[in-house]
Design goal:
mainly beta; globular; PH-domain like; four-stranded antiparallel beta sheet; 1 helix
């Protein structure tokens, strides 16, 4: 049987002289404690769905992307990934036609200045002209000017 040398520094527990010692004035909790509450969910974890208050909503959808504006805020879905922005965290919402006139471009400006955009193809092209007044009305309901 081959004998291996003891592990080098960095392996195993630290020597006792390096173990942290508690401050003398702090009482140590007993080992048998009540169960700790579970860790809080990270901020990116999805919150359980909340019923939105009654109000108008807007939906533009194509094969890959979608834009939803409702009482809770603005949501973008792009290739199966959804990002939701609640009204209190939104600085502004902008929209326009794409340069070729075939899609709706919607942008959300976050309070911290970050900018998010979603592009939804309008098929038929006339649908774009239907979306503009609907989107303007819904945004005006939730974010009145002035």
């Amino acid at each position: 049987m081959t004998q291996h040398p003891p592990p080098g520094p960095g392996f195993g527990p630290p020597p006792p002289q390096y173990a942290p010692t508690p401050p003398p004035h702090t009482p140590q909790p007993p080992y048998a404690q009540a169960p700790q509450p579970p860790y809080a969910q990270p901020p990116y974890a999805q919150a359980p769905p909340q019923p939105a208050a009654a109000g108008p909503d807007f939906l533009a959808v194509d094969k890959r992307n979608a834009v939803v504006v409702d009482a809770s805020g603005v949501a973008f879905e792009t290739s199966g990934l959804t990002v939701e922005f609640r009204w209190p965290e939104i600085r502004g919402v902008h929209y326009r036609a794409s340069p070729d006139g075939k899609a709706l471009m919607v942008a959300v400006v976050h309070l911290d200045g970050r900018f998010y955009e979603c592009v939804v193809e309008a098929r038929p092209r006339t649908r774009l002209q239907e979306w503009f007044p609907q989107l303007a009305w819904v945004l005006g309901h939730y974010r009145p000017m002035g």
